[in-house]
Amino acid sequence: MHNWFDRLKTGLRKTHTQIVHGLDEFFISKQDKATREEALETLFELLVQADVGVKTSEYLVDKVKSRIQKEDYSDAKIFKNILREEIFNILTATRENPKGTLENPLQSLADKKLPHVVVIVGVNGVGKTTTTGKLAFKSHLRGQKVVIGAADTFRAAAVEQLAVWAQRSKADMIRLKEGSDPASVAFETVKKASENNASICLIDTAGRLQNRQDLMQELAKIGRVIAKENPDAPHEVLLVLDATTGQNALQQARVFKEVVNITGLVLTKLDGTAKGGIAIAIAAELGVPIRYIGVGESVEDLEVFEAHEFVNALFSETNN
């Protein structure tokens, strides 16, 4: 069984090839005679191709330009180390979270009413239901009592999928008849979690297009209804994004952020894309912390996001 860092490294291999290997090939081709203009232009192109985005790519290029000495533009190691440090700085700028995280929900909630209520949101097809199930299972493994709410009431398959995860996690699951008001499911879930003294309450919502205002407003309603049962809830609203969609994921996040108070992001399917740079763009442009990243289908392939692990895996010399 590979450890998490090995799985992360494998998952980021395509992105590593795009950025880091691309820089290596550039410096080799220049035989230690790269000019400043050539090096910076190449860096910008590689970052954009990895879906770091124009704005964040320009920011990183400017940072590298301001830190590197003229004579070091032909030194691939120095160049990459500075880039690595600046990416790390972007990824750590949003890590502070006054409400605690799923990994340790009691950390800053000792004086608040449990359960720790987490609403999972996102568009169709990003892996919301799977993410909800994996988080439930991980909480169960930590000895926490979990209640799951199947608020995706329009897709029977999602409810059945959640039921399997609930069984694996020994969690109670609240489900109402197909087509029921999702806010009602959310309310009943929080109520059940409170009655059962659960530690974690996870609510899976229906996938929605960010351009459907009626569906987006439904999320706001869920938040209002939950607060009637627990005034502090929801403690977390996690937005699930599919890394393979690149810059579209960033646009989705912007729209969701306007409607609900997104407290954290879950970035899935990093293993299927060379666009892993989207994690950097999202951290730089949204100011919302990445909570979890996924690099595969198994429960072990979803883990708490740690900036140093991400950067070390991205720049690993053994990832070629």
From TrEMBL:
Residues 289-302 form the SRP54-type proteins GTP-binding domain. Its EC number is 3.6.5.4. Pfam families: SRP54, SRP54_N. One of its GO terms (biological process) is SRP-dependent cotranslational protein targeting to membrane. Keywords: Cell membrane, Cytoplasm, GTP-binding, Hydrolase, Membrane, Nucleotide-binding, Receptor. It is a peripheral membrane protein. NCBIfam families: ftsY. Belongs to the GTP-binding SRP family. FtsY subfamily. Involved in targeting and insertion of nascent membrane proteins into the cytoplasmic membrane. Acts as a receptor for the complex formed by the signal recognition particle (SRP) and the ribosome-nascent chain (RNC). This is Signal recognition particle receptor FtsY.
